[in-house]
Amino acid sequence: MGKCDGRCTLLVICSLQLVAALQRQVFDFLGYQWAPILANFLHIMAVILGMFGTVQFRFRYLIFYAVWLVLWVGWNSFIICFYLEVGNLSQDRDFLMTFNTSLHRSWWMEHGPGCLVTPVLDSRLAPDDHHVITVSGCLLDYQYIEVLSSAIQILLALFGFVYACYVSKVFQDDEDSFDFIGGFDSYGYQPPQKSSHLQLQPLYTAG
Cystine design at 33: which of 4, 28, 45, 65 (Cβ 3.0–4.6 Å)? Predict the structure, then answer.
């Protein structure tokens, strides 16, 4: 019963991770955030692999999923530090999220709740094929939306890591117990040999 509960809980966590990652992938595509797009794609693949391992009782897949979640927590921690400009990270100088290929920022910068976008005409600060805008009236700044999204990803990853380790341990214990009773005995199953004692009786024929 505990194994079933753990598997079901892990599948629910993986489903929430998948929905959150797909939602994030859409908005990162809209904002041309190439580094998060690549990371989200790898995360989606790892979550699907974790779900497959949970359903098919493959504890090695769950170990891979758990290891990836550690890296995923590190990546989202970096995103939080980036948008909060911790240390030497600066949004105005570094375009790490786009691999320094464009000037695009987070999609939420212009489309956040309550944001009013005003284009600045005839601005000399705008490069070719770009325009300068001012954003005002936002109920929540875009960097805090990105931080909140990353915090949710970290929270789900922590729950997923704990349950992945638990379920993989249950799977491994089941395999060990099955081996112990001879399910995968390397010596093979040898049925007991019955010794038959046959007594020969003389055969008399009437002459």
Answer: 28
Is residue 138 a contact partner of residue 113, using CB atoms and an 8 Å limit?
A: yes
Low-confidence ranges of the chain (pLDDT < 50): 1-3, 180-189
Comparing CA positions, the residue from 42, 41, 56 lying closest to residue 11 is 56
Q: Are 16 and 180 in contact (CB under 8 A)?
A: no
Predicted local confidence at residue 1, as pLDDT: 45
Q: CA triplet 103, 104, 106: central angle to 5 degrees?
A: 140
pLDDT at 105: 75
The pLDDT, as a whole number, for residue 2 is 46
pTM, 2 dp:
0.76
- The DSSP secondary structure of the chain, one letter per residue, reads -HHHHHHHHHHHHHHHHHHHHHHHHHHHHHTT-HHHHHHHHHHHHHHHHHHHHHHTT-HHHHHHHHHHHHHHHHHHHHHHHHHTT-TT--TTT--GGGTTS-----THHHHSTT-EEEEETT-TT--TT--EEEEE--SS-HHHHHHHHHHHHHHHHHHHHHHHHHHHHHHHHHHHHHHHTTTT-TT---PPPPPP-PPP-------
Q: What is the pLDDT of residue 188?
A: 47
pLDDT at 135: 79
